[in-house]
Amino acid sequence: MYSKKWIFILVIIACGASSYAQITVGASNQLIQRILPKHANQFVIEQIGTASKDTFQISSRNGKIVLAGNNGVSIASALYYYLNEYCHCQITWNGENLNLPAKLPVVPTKIKKSSPYEYRYYLNYCTYNYSMSWWDWQRWEKEIDWMALHGINMPLAITGEEYVWNEVYKEMGFTDKELSTFFCGPSYFSWFWMGNLDGWGGPLPQSWMISHKDLQQKILKRERELGMKPVLSAFTGHVPAAFRLKYPNAKLKQTNWNNGFSDTYILDSEDPLFAEIGKRYLEKQTQIFGTDHLYSADTFNENEPPSDDPEFLSKLSARVYDGMRQADPKAVWVMQGWLFFSDRKFWHAPQIKALLDAVPNDRMIILDLITEYEPVWKRTEAYYGKPWIWNMLHNFGGNISLFGQMENVATQPSAALNDPQSKKLKGIGLTMEAIEQTPVLYELMTANTWRTTPISLDQWLSKYIRNRYGKGTPESNASMLKAWQVLKNTVYNGKEIRDGAESILTGRPTMDSATRWTKTKLNYERRELIPAWDLFINSSAIYANSDGFQYDLVDLTRQVLANYARPLQVKWVKAYEDKDLIAFKKYSNQYLELIDDMDKLLATRKDFLLGKWIADARQCGTTNAEKALYEQNAHDLITLWGDADSPLHEYSWCQWSGLMTDFYKVRWQKFFTAIDAALVAGKTVDVEAFDKEIAQWEWKWVNTQKNFPTEPTGNSVQMAKLLYKKYRNKI
Questions:
Q1: Which residue of 206, 250, 395, 583 sits 20 to 30 Å from the alpha carbon of 130, by its own alpha carbon?
Q2: Are residues 366 and 406 in the same domain?
Q3: pLDDT tens track for 276-288
Q4: 3-state secondary structure of 455
């Protein structure tokens, strides 16, 4: 017999569980209403009792589809599984197929799935700028739905972090003037948060801080309602330059990212102020945003520690964690493992082990950031006993390029899961630098979430094509599967190169085959991609109304033409070397014409418009001055990245309509004019002088305000067919 005390406690627990169930069911119903408003009344949502693993069930009852799960993410995943498997539908950033029948298909036998992965991580600091710099709540709401549908339960959530820091430093006595050179512009937060730069692209308006504090509160509320546990930020030592004046006895390290930016200041973890500021920050952040006890902190992101002594690194790591623990005894440090990949000359086994061993195993999670390319867990004894997450990085800088490690993504997560040497593998994740491109890789990676076995690519691709393009004919389906086999064996074969090849078109003008950030090496022969183009064009009449097919056709055509730029470059370079002015004019004009044609193709899809990126930036401003600042930030990130002398120019190149003709083409025109003049004068073109001149023109472009189309023009299929007819035989 229970005492009154225990009855009271059980009632409280039951009420709490009931409240949680109501939140889960309510949030799930609202998600379905947003995605399928015409079919929402055909679904019934139920919550499964607390499960040791995230679980969902799908069944039919009384003419309705019953989606059950232990939280909102599981229920959303059940919905997406049903849409994929029974309705042949798909939801991606680049193409949507929600052509459902009026009466939804029955589920003959109950489906039950559990995820073997406790954590399904999402986002990279860089994603917040290369893709998300200008997002409003409407766009975030759509992304959170996408996250839930694809099983994400552990998103990095760092919007509005600058507001928290502003509050902390104001309370410590720093003035607006002292902080004006600390906070960067909105395009550069990722690298500000990671301590790589101060102030660049600023000063940051107060209106931005306030609006994005409000935005973060909406983001976190929605993510938590769906059962996600967002990862917030923690203090890693990055402080304002004014810190050295206000605290002259503070132990500071002056460091430089070596990418053309001024020094930043890192407070040594040995300084008592380190723990104090870390505690202040987490307390203030928790007050404003709440907490799920997960904190991201990367002390040495592309910045080398002052000593490789294991004892030094161990003490440093312990102090960083202690700063979190003092504010939150339940704190778990989520660390990006990028440093172990990018700076392996420093991070050897003793250094890595010392850094990790200083934190209790249950208080740290490591993100193996680029596992599909190089599984660092295999050379660190699975991070020496720490829980860790298998991640696909895939995209760097938001570059538009058909590329991916498809076979690894299909087979290696489950291989690691079932490998005794993987020890505390606790999750899978997506850590790309940018999204809204190459949707197939993200559908494939998230397909691992609810399984423990490898994915058979041939079977999976057949379903993917059906879901993406809709119902075709047996012949067209076979053609598309054949086309995707070509893509799998060429652009997605994952051989030789780490990330997608660039086109020479988007590089700063050169006669070489590549520049620092424009690497044109392909992991296949150019001609090997052509059969896929043939098959897409030949099936275009059947799939002409498919959103996903239109995107894929444009993207494939873009890639074929981008590849063609290199052999065309070889022709005009040879003409210059042969001092053949007529041939040079012929091939350089064809080169410029290719850029124009690609721009027209890209203009047919909203996914490839510069104008959308610029307009979204301006929309964030509350005054003309703010709009101009944000537009400058938007221009700069995708071109020079920094100032006119930036060594990072072209790192974030994008093949976008508007950028092709207004930026890349103009540069090549100026280069060809210089070569033409040299040929006429019988001289050698001065490439170094041109580089200095064009850098100044680029900086002027970055600081010029100009409107570009924000809506697509033309028909994607018709334009692709026109360019196929024009270029197929030439290529």
A1: 206
A2: yes
A3: 999 999 999 999 9
A4: coil
The CATH number that applies at residue 646 is 1.20.120.670
Is 346 a residue whose pLDDT tops 60? yes
**What is the structure's pLDDT at 468?**
98
Per-residue pLDDT, 17: 60
Residue 610 contacts residue 659 (beta carbons within 8 Å): yes
* Contact of 559 with 523, CB cutoff 8 Å: no
The whole-angstrom separation of Cα 276 and Cα 269 is 10
Distance of CA 169 to the CA centre of its chain: 30
Q: Which two tokens stand for residue 49?
A: 């009792």
CB count in 10 Å sphere of residue 64? 14
Q: Residue 306 and residue 82: Cα distance in Å, rounded?
A: 53
Q: Write a three-state SS string for 636-674.
A: HHCCCCCCCCCCCCCCCCCCCECHHHHHHHHHHHHHHHH
116 prior amide bond cis, ω within 30: no
Work out the mean pLDDT of the chain and round it to a whole number: 94
**8: confidence class by pLDDT, cuts 50, 70, 90:** very low
Phi-psi region of 173 (alpha: psi -120 to 50; beta: other; left: phi over 0): left
**Residue 305 domain-assigned?**
yes
Average of per-residue pLDDT across 95-120: 96
Q: Which residues of 140-172 are buried (b: 16+ CB within 10 A; e: fewer)?
A: bbebbbbbbbbbbbbbbbbbbbbbbbbbbbeeb
Q: So what's the pLDDT on residue 18?
A: 66
Can you spell out the DSSP letters for 69-114?
ESSHHHHHHHHHHHHHHTS--EEETTEEE----SSPPP-SS-EEEE
Tell me the chain's radius of gyration from C-alpha atoms.
27
Same domain? 234 vs 100: no
The pLDDT value recorded for residue 162 is 97
Q: Which two tokens stand for residue 597?
A: 């044609």
pTM listed for this prediction: 0.95
- Output the six-digit token pair for 375: 């599984």
Contacts of 87 (CB under 8 A, 6+ apart): 100, 101, 104, 105
Give the span between the Cα atoms of 75 and 80, in whole angstroms.
9
Question: What per-residue string of b and e applies to 85-101 under the rule 16 or more CB within 10 Å gives b?
Answer: ebbbbbbbbbbbbeebe
Q: SS3 for 532?
A: helix
The total of other beta-carbon atoms located within 10 Å of residue 76's CB is 29
Q: Note the pLDDT of residue 706.
A: 96
Shared-domain flag, residues 435 and 555: no
User: In a 3-state reduction of DSSP, which class is residue 610?
Assistant: helix
Same domain, 158 and 299: yes
**pLDDT at position 6:** 46
| Residue keyed to tokens 């660049």 | 200
Measured CA to CA, the distance from residue 323 to residue 327 in angstroms comes to 7
Q: Any idea which residue has 């006993």 for tokens?
A: 385
The last residue of one of the domains, among 114, 138, 172, is: 114
